[in-house]
Write a sequence for this structure.
């Protein structure tokens, strides 16, 4: 999953591995109701975001900001209760976390009775079936690939708009839904916690414009949405706390305002005057502000440092930068100290040498390239010499924010020392991932970040490096390296069928090493995301699945 300068997103695992993986992450920042008694009711929470969401349509959303916002509007089959020390998978629309059968190739969910949409109609199993079928329509692109990969018949199905249904999703009455998978998926019930496994009532589906018309069964519904300017959510009067184990409905409205510079948002919330007192940000603190704000003791009670199950990286397009020696030279030439400086220094995260981050099932500690994070210039120059001393010009894609442009400058400076000229291509932050994920828009080098969709390698490496998916998802390609290595693909297929977690994790560790041997990507940092709120915002939960400040219990202090 992507968090725009926060992350893309992906993760997977079985319940036992979840506990192991997540047990390792502690959350910083103040949480929930400390020192303020019971949550206050009423008031407006203001959310300050640098750019609009790529999508809010639950079947299209694949950024952490969009997913976090969708938690207020739509409910999913399963979800994460993050009120304890580690996230716990629970039933959301479903009464429990699903029942696997036939070797985890069939999953059955029973729905809660009495969950209501904003118009008072009841949420039913056929609505969830229809919602999931929307994943397959070419008009609804951008979301995660799991439904297409795992549901029987998914490779040929084209979505519900021609009146056809997908037979591998079966419903029995209003309250039972069964999914038939083409392979065992032990952690399928963690996939179903993602927004795409939400109900969409056919009568209210507006197709490709559903982003601005999402029909709510959560605590809040869309009151108004002016793209790139403002989204206002108001209470869904038909939502009932009795049917919802995850969310609360404390504030009257959520007012999301788009388009201010990252630093301007930071300074506004830091100053804590007027509406800033009841404001929060969803995009992380700007790199230029992070070191100073992270160390400011006066902000401690409203500063959230959230460890992400993810990584910040530079993808090298292996179909454009074909010479392995040149790619290896880039690995040695990048100075991770200046790169990390652009994102805010050590508060942003530890230097990375692998694509799997510590705390994710499958992570193995290794370093294929320079032991010094500042790089190894002599080794990089020697590799360029072996490649015949080419003097290539390369394009790098980044978001058009100061943080990212400083990052691009750091890459440019490092590569020009080995004779590679770098042209920087800044892309509008609101459209960044939809631009770079479209195969028509290819760059030599592309900034990316990725957060596991759930805490396991199965939602990181297969999504980012299965070369067979490039052709399958030309407008939603997550393989920014365009790597299509038969060795990696074979390991992906092998790992997918392994029910034994230890065996599977070992296969993912080997996969990570092969991807780095291919010099397909430069891992930069294992990320933390830091956000702030005003002094009158309470109930914020550090969401370590999305690495976002979760708003499911948020309230305004009066």
């Amino acid at each position: 999953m992507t968090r725009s300068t926060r992350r893309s997103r992906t993760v997977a695992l079985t319940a036992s591995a979840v506990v192991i993986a997540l047990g390792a992450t502690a959350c910083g920042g103040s949480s929930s109701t400390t020192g303020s008694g019971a949550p206050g009711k009423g008031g407006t929470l203001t959310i300050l975001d640098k750019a609009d969401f790529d999508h809010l349509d639950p079947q299209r959303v694949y950024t952490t900001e969009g997913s976090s916002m969708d938690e207020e509007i739509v409910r999913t089959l399963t979800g994460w209760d993050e009120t304890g020390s580690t996230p716990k998978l629970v039933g959301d629309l479903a009464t429990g976390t699903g029942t696997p059968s036939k070797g985890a190739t069939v999953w059955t969910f029973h729905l809660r009775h009495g969950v209501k949409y904003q118009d008072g109609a009841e949420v039913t199993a056929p609505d969830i079936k229809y919602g999931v079928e929307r994943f397959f329509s070419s008009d609804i692109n951008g979301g995660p690939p799991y439904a297409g990969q795992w549901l029987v018949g998914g490779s040929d199905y084209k979505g519900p708009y021609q009146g056809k249904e997908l037979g591998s999703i079966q419903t029995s009455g209003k309250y039972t839904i069964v999914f038939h998978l083409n392979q065992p998926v032990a952690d399928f019930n963690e996939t179903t916690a993602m927004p795409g496994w939400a109900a969409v009532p056919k009568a209210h589906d507006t197709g490709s414009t559903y982003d601005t018309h999402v029909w709510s069964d959560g605590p809040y519904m869309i009151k108004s949405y002016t793209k790139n300017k403002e989204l206002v959510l108001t209470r869904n009067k038909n939502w009932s706390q009795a049917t919802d184990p995850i969310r609360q409905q404390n504030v009257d409205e959520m007012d999301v305002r788009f388009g201010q510079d990252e630093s301007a948002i930071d300074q506004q919330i830091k100053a804590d005057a007027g509406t800033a007192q009841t404001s929060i940000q969803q995009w992380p603190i700007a790199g230029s502000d992070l070191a100073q704000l992270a160390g400011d003791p006066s902000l401690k009670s409203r500063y959230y440092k959230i460890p992400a199950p993810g990584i910040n990286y530079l993808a090298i397009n292996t179909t454009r930068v074909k010479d392995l020696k040149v790619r290896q030279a880039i690995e040695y030439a990048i100075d991770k100290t200046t790169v990390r400086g652009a994102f805010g220094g050590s508060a942003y995260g530890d230097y990375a040498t692998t694509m799997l981050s510590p705390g994710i099932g499958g992570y193995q500690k290794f370093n294929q390239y320079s032991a010094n994070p500042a790089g190894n210039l002599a080794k990089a120059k020697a590799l360029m010499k072996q490649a015949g001393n080419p003097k290539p010009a390369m394009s790098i894609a980044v978001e058009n924010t100061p943080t990212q442009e400083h990052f691009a400058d750091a890459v440019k400076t490092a590569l020009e020392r080995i004779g590679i000229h770098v042209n920087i291509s800044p892309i509008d932050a609101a459209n960044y991932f939809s631009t770079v994920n479209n195969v028509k828009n290819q760059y030599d080098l592309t900034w990316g970040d990725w957060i596991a969709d759930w805490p396991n390698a199965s939602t990181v490496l297969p999504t980012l490096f299965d070369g067979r998916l490039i052709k399958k998802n030309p407008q939603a390609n997550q393989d920014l390296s365009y790597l299509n290595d038969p060795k990696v693909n074979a390991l992906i297929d092998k790992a997918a069928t392994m029910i034994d977690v230890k065996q599977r994790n070992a296969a993912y560790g080997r996969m990570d090493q092969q991807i780095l041997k291919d010099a397909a990507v430069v891992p930069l940092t294992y990320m933390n995301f830091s956000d702030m709120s005003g002094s009158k915002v309470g109930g914020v939960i550090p969401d370590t699945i999305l690495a976002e400040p979760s708003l499911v219990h948020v309230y305004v202090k009066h």
Summary: Residues 4-37 have pLDDT under 50 and may be disordered.
